[in-house]
Amino acid sequence: MFGVKSRLPIDTSSVLTPNEQLRQVEVNALVGIRKKLQRESRSSTKGAKFKIGQQVLVLRPQLRKRSAVSKLLPQYLGPFKIQKVLPHNLYEVQSKSKAITTFHAVRLIRCFPCTTQP
């Protein structure tokens, strides 16, 4: 039209310019990087595994709320003893006063008994 030869989409689809070739290489590399990141994230999302009878400490619930809490309070309560393993990473724990409560694994850490004698 008007002295210029018309270009159809099929004419330009087979020939890639150097910039388009570089972009294609970049896109292919991004796919590999995404797969690698997904694989790493899946392997790092495994929660802590506790066994029945193991001693654990429980994160104090008041620390995660937006309320005034003394900085001098201990961060963890316990020790508690694992009584039962429930589905969905839940654990029933028993306190020294024999009260049984349920906590998610993210609120528990392993308790190591003190080895020094007074």
Task: Please give a structural write-up.
It comes from Smittium angustum. This protein is of the alpha+beta class. It has two domains: 9-44; 55-110, SH3 type barrels. 27% of the residues lie in helices and 25% in strands. It has a five-stranded antiparallel beta sheet with strand order 4-3-2-1-5, with no helix packed on it. β2 (76-86) and β3 (90-94) form a beta hairpin. It is elongated, with a radius of gyration of 29 Å.
Q: What is the topology?
A:
Blueprint: H1 9-13, H2 18-44, E1 55-59, E2 76-86, E3 90-94, E4 100-104, E5 108-110
Antiparallel strand pairs: 1-2, 1-5, 2-3, 3-4
Radius of gyration: 29 Å
Spatial strand order of the main sheet = 4-3-2-1-5
Overall body shape: elongated
| Run of helices and strands | HHEEEEE
Query: What gap, in angstroms, lies between the N and C termini?
Result: 98 Å
- Please state the average pLDDT score: 83
CATH class of the largest domain: Mainly Beta
Number of domains: 2
- Tell me the helix content: 25-40%
Structural class: alpha+beta
The CATH architecture category of the largest domain equals Roll
What is the number of helical segments per DSSP (H or I, 4+ residues)? 2
Largest sheet data: 5 strands, antiparallel
CATH fold call of the largest domain: SH3 type barrels
- Give the number of DSSP strands: 5
Keywords:
118 residues, 2 helices, SH3 type barrels, Integrase zinc-binding domain-containing protein, alpha+beta
